[in-house]
Specification:
globular, mainly alpha
């Protein structure tokens, strides 16, 4: 008789966090490597209006948001692994199509499809963590993953710029395809199924409707989903505008990639700080104060822009401080929004991700489309969204802010 095959070693905590971070990072990689390439893509595919180049990002995000409605219910029915692996392979194909396209409409179609595919990683990263953790412990895991994941926004624009120095912009999409294949292999070999068989739910439109009802009628889930949507709108508005700000207002396109890396790096520092303090002080105390600081800095930055005193130094410094507030609020908002969602974790994550991403993309697209050669539209959007975020959280908590829930 043959000896039984040795059991696969269990996925350790560090590898688990790193794998979750890699899933999250595919989204950032698919967006941020594009930013330095937007002028080249526009020139190659004959895009006349500079603001229209933003659709390379917007199309991906709209597909990314819509795709989350699909992946969560499928994963609740068939398990996390098969849905995740299928999404990764589909994403590889979409990026290869995008690399080969010769027309802007076909590129946008490929980007929408790539967004749908990449959404599987976002939904299932949250669902997989929720399968194993809850509350402040979940917030800590998401924050630790965010530290690793934030290396990508720091490096991605520089990676995109490096690719442009040695190869055409199409190679950015080939690199994305290679990254998707590597992640596919890692998950296939190392990640076990985290959804227990007894927790699998039937696939039905009625259950999706129940998921919407469950999220949209739970006070915490609704309030924090709304707050996350508004904050993501600010982030997307920044992503859509920042390359043009350096190109048009500051006339320093070569400084874009390093400046973006500095700004993104502050979010990684904040995410690490959050992972260290969230279990001590609580997700609410940290995130509520972060929103207040975010809104105050946004208002100050708006005043500087309105008075015509904006410089590269003021832009990078104040934007970095605001972005750090995302690191202190984002993971905590997601964890709080999921507190009552354990029974429908996959579907709830899908619904919340759909609302946050599509809503945030539309808000960000409006901010980006308003770009007029100055930073005023960007920080008018930031200030407005910050005020509304605080209002949404205050309503969700019935005015009881800054403390832990009993």
């Amino acid at each position: 008789m043959h000896a039984p095959a040795p059991a696969r070693p269990e996925l350790g905590f560090r590898e688990f966090v790193t794998l979750i971070a890699a899933l999250m990072a595919m989204t950032a990689l698919s967006i941020d490597t594009m930013l330095p390439a937007l002028p080249a893509i526009g020139h190659s595919l004959h895009v006349a209006q500079a603001n229209d180049r933003q659709w390379v990002i917007t199309a991906f995000m709209l597909g990314f948001g819509a795709g989350q409605i699909v992946h969560g219910p499928l994963s609740d029915r068939f398990g996390r692994r098969p849905v995740l692996l299928t999404g990764l392979i589909f994403g590889v194909i979409c990026n290869i199509v995008a690399a080969a396209t010769t027309t802007f409409p076909l590129l946008l179609a490929a980007r929408v499809a790539a967004g749908v595919a990449t959404a599987s990683g976002r939904v299932l990263a949250v669902s997989i963590v929720r399968d194993r953790f809850i509350g402040d412990a979940m917030a800590r895991v998401m924050s630790l993953a965010a530290i690793v994941f934030m290396v990508v926004p720091i490096a991605a624009p520089n990676l995109g710029q490096l690719i442009l120095l040695i190869a055409p912009w199409r190679w950015i999409f080939y690199i994305l395809a290679i990254a998707g294949l590597l992640l596919f292999g890692w998950i296939a070999l190392r990640l076990p199924e985290t959804l227990r068989p007894q927790h699998r739910l039937p696939l039905s439109i009625a259950r999706l409707g129940e998921g919407f009802r469950y999220v949209l009628t739970d006070r915490l889930a609704l309030g924090y989903t709304a707050g996350s949507t508004l904050l993501q709108g600010c982030l997307f508005g920044f992503l859509l505008s920042v390359q043009q700000i350096f190109e048009t207002e500051f006339r320093a396109p070569n400084l874009f990639a390093p400046a973006f890396s500095v700004i993104a790096g502050t979010m990684a520092v904040a995410a690490f700080a959050n992972s260290q303090i969230v279990t001590r002080y609580g997700a609410r105390a940290v995130s509520h104060r972060a929103v207040i600081v975010f809104t105050s800095i946004a208002a100050l930055h708006l005043a500087i822009a309105l008075t015509g005193h904006e410089t590269i130094v003021s832009f990078v410094l104040l934007q970095a401080l605001m972005i750090s507030c995302f690191g202190l609020a984002g993971a905590n908002f997601s964890a709080i929004a999921m507190e009552h969602m354990g029974r429908l974790a996959g579907t709830a994550s899908s619904v919340q991700g759909f609302v946050q991403t599509v809503g945030g993309t539309l808000i960000g697209a409006a901010i980006g489309a308003a770009f007029n050669g100055t930073t005023v539209p960007l920080y008018l959007g930031f200030t407005s969204c910050g005020v509304l975020t605080f209002a949404a959280v205050a309503i969700a908590e019935r005015g009881r802010l800054f403390g832990r829930r009993a």
